[in-house]
Amino acid sequence: TELRRATILLPLAQFADDVLVPLLYAIGVLWTEGDLGPAQEHAASAVVRHVLDDIIRSCDPAPNALPVIVGTPVGQRHELGALLAAASASSMGWRVIYLGMDLPASEIAHAAELAPARVIALSIVHPAPDERLRADLEVLAAALPAGHALILGGAAAPMYARKLQRPGVYAISSLVTF
After folding, report:
1. Is the pLDDT of residue 127 over 80?
2. HSE of 9, CA atoms in CB hemisphere, 13 A
3. Are strands 95-103 and 67-73 parallel, antiparallel or unpaired?
4. What is the pTM of this model?
5. I need a labelling partner for 56 at 20 to 30 A (CA). Which of 12, 81, 145, 178 fits?
């Protein structure tokens, strides 16, 4: 109820950056320290997912709205950051094509080609360097035509964006930036 109330009182980017991101971080810390059980963490995530789904469904993009692909790349199983990006893009009038989590670069690139989408937004949470993920992101960035954007968000996004060092690849630190 409080999360739904906050979606009414705050602009979406502010709601995400000031309410949801700190909440999800706190849940992660409590879970890591053993103060929150897996069932509680899953329940909290489900509540956040429902709120974000409601936001996405409430937005009605124009027929000519630009498409944006949103999801998580291979090995990334935490999708709430991607859902935050999808909700934010929906509220800004984009036609969101949400792919979900843990997708290889070839599938993401294929979805962008079919859409056709010039923007791909991916959430990358895990901070540990993952060579498979880095290689997959390199394949994706190389597959994008000039003028397309690959936007990386999440805790590990800056590290992977620095490693890619390609035009059109951006790391964002907040949904306000997005």
Report:
1. no
2. 8
3. parallel
4. 0.89
5. 145
